[in-house]
Fold this protein.
Amino acid sequence: MSIEIDQVNKRFGDFVAVDNVSLTLNNGELTALLGPSGSGKTTLLRIIAGLEQPDSGRIRFHGEDTTDLHVSDRGVGFVFQHYALFKHMNVYENVAYGLTVRPRSQRPSKAEIRKKVMHLLEMVQLDWTADRLPSQLSGGQRQRIALARALAVEPKVLLLDEPFGALDAKVRAELRRWLRRLHDEIHVTSVFVTHDQEEALEVSDRVVVMNHGRVEQDGGPEEVYDNPANPFVYQFLGNVNRFGARLRDGMAQIGQLRVPAPEYAGQGESPAVAYVRPYDIEVLPGASDASLPARIDLVSVIGPRVRLELQTESSSETVHAEMSRSRFRELGLAQGSDAWIRPLNSRVFLEDGDIRSA
């Protein structure tokens, strides 16, 4: 079931929640709507579901205009952040609820309902909880039950609003891997809202990055991470270092360091910003060509990785670098010592937001 979002707008008073958004979500894809609070992602999800009406624009499911259809007629399954399970019903009754409240003419038999519910509970690996109350389950288990309940009515589209937001980090990581495997099994067109960059990049087939009600970038996880469309996407997707630069004759000058920016060859001098991921900062114990002097202010050992915070004369911002523990020991680096840094891979943005590789 494909979803077409055609020039959708939504305001709440003076606040523009969704600003002329157009997207086509393909059949069977798992799409993440990613952005900070207030970016419009949840409002857009609710418009797709029929829980909010757009001020203008259309929503189509597989070519059929559903903009004015009631939410109950859209064939949508919805999973909320806080489970929304019925506390007085056991797990079996919660999952079966959407089937048991159907009109008699559309309602499956009790045997058919039981077969479907138990199959779904087996799919989410919780068939042994059928007689338990939600209060007797962990948060992660309750969220899987909520997902099973949404799937019981065989939705055309599955929508998830911050589905793992109420869970701790370890359970979140486990559940998002489980969701990816489940989606590969059922292939229902799914859209989920998150502000967690790692979650979106790990789980989804496609990432739609939103900010101030607009789509900043739309593409596969690797595409949006490796080739951000503008400075906002670059900074929002993971940690990044910013170096003030001057562009001149196809080169970006960062302090005494020059990095090539051939796309700007022939262009006059202009201010720019070079962006470098922490793992693309090489830290050296001695001076070398194309390096900047720095001082190591902080060393943090986190499992097999070492994170460094450094200060340079050419930047007022702290520079973050990352390397393996074995590499750190090999270089003989230490907190408080002098070092030199060299960007291995940078991207240069003009101050107006244009982007070129460097």
